[in-house]
Write a structure and sequence with these properties.
24% strand, four-stranded antiparallel sheet, 323 residues, single chain, eight-stranded mixed sheet, alpha/beta, globular
């Protein structure tokens, strides 16, 4: 995939990555991710969007070396982190790439105090010179996410869902990571709490110069937080664009279908609006090869040559309308 952002530093590269799992049948494997190919730039929030089962979490877990790649490679700061790497390089990945989990209740040890939950990474990597510094780091991490130092003696079950997610964010941030995989970090929270957690993540990103891979199925949330968006369907990345472009001029039929399901704040519009059901038969059925193609600067679409002609016509129509 060509890159028109030469002035921006690439922190993570996904290059032709396939991820497959055994099905019990030696001859047949389940391919969860097929030929994923994109870059994430330092300091941005890159969203990976798709419905349940599309492969977005599988890809996020591959970045953290939980899932193995069956083809392709993942590069972090220019070094390959997929496949077999040294123990030291593996520790470097754990140290610099952290995850915020979907379910804050399940991701915290219910039998451990908040202090221990947040300190776990510090213990594992011995990132403190004495107990006083460790406690000071925990207090600072809790304050950064809007909690109080006195909360550290409590247990996870004593907190609300939103507060538990803040603890999960503090646990990730205390490692001072460079890259964070946020796997549906607000989907288990009440609607009223979601904006608070998103605002917190944006605040910490700016303060600590973080880079996020934000995994989600809700495009309305993604529009609020993402700089660029990749849409994934059945393991294939079908479209990549900056957030504004994707919302204003979606090209792939699956992207258009996803966007049509986003609720509108206007009740009159919402009553008359109809969701567009994705129909794969509208795509080129000739068997011609599909690949990621750049249709305009920074806007990529997974298409055959004949499909590109239709997409290019749509872009021309959109640009003439704007003019």
């Amino acid at each position: 995939m060509s890159n028109n952002n030469e002035d921006r530093e690439v922190i993570l590269s996904i290059r032709h990555v396939d991820i497959s799992f055994d099905t019990g049948n030696k001859k047949k494997k389940f391919v969860a991710v097929k030929d994923a190919n994109f870059d994430i730039y330092k300091g941005e929030t890159f969203a990976l969007v798709g419905e349940s089962g599309s492969g977005k979490t599988t890809l996020g877990r591959a970045i953290l070396r939980i899932n193995e790649c069956s083809a392709g490679e993942i590069l972090f700061e220019g070094k390959r982190i997929s496949g077999k790497i040294s123990r030291e390089e593996d520790r470097n990945v754990v140290r610099n790439i952290q995850m915020i989990f979907q379910d804050p209740a399940a991701s915290l040890n219910e039998r451990a105090t908040i202090e221990y939950c947040v300190s776990e990474g510090l213990y594992n990597f011995h990132l403190y010179k004495d107990e006083e510094e460790r406690v000071s780091k925990v207090d600072k991490a809790l304050q950064d996410v809007g909690l109080l130092p006195e909360h550290k003696s409590r247990y996870p079950h004593e907190f609300s869902g939103g507060q538990r997610q803040r603890v999960g964010i503090a646990r990730a941030m205390i490692m001072d990571p460079k890259f964070i995989v946020a796997d549906e970090p607000i989907s288990a929270l009440d609607v009223s709490i979601r904006a608070q957690v998103l605002n917190l993540m944006n605040k910490l990103k700016a303060e600590k110069n973080l880079t996020y891979l934000f995994i989600a199925h809700d495009l309305s949330v993604v529009r609020f937080i993402a700089d660029r968006i990749a849409v994934i369907h059945l393991g294939e990345i079908v479209e990549i664009a900056d957030a504004e472009t994707l919302f204003e001029c979606p090209l792939h039929p699956y992207t258009i279908s996803l966007l049509s399901s986003v609720p509108m704040p206007d009740p009159v519009v919402e009553r008359t609006r109809r969701a567009i059901v994705y129909d794969p038969s509208v795509l080129d059925q000739s068997g011609a090869p599909r690949e990621m193609r750049e249709i305009r600067r920074g806007h990529f679409i997974y298409a055959t040559e004949s499909e590109m002609e239709k997409y290019e016509a749509r872009v021309r129509e959109y640009e003439s309308f704007r003019a």
